[in-house]
Amino acid sequence: MGTLPTRDRYALVAGEIDVNDVLFRMLEPHEIGRAMSFHPDYVVLGSKRDRVRQYGNAVTPPVAEVILCALVEAITGEPIDRHGPTKERFAPAA
Question: How confident is the model at residue 20 (pLDDT cuts 50, 70, 90)?
Answer without folding.
Answer: confident
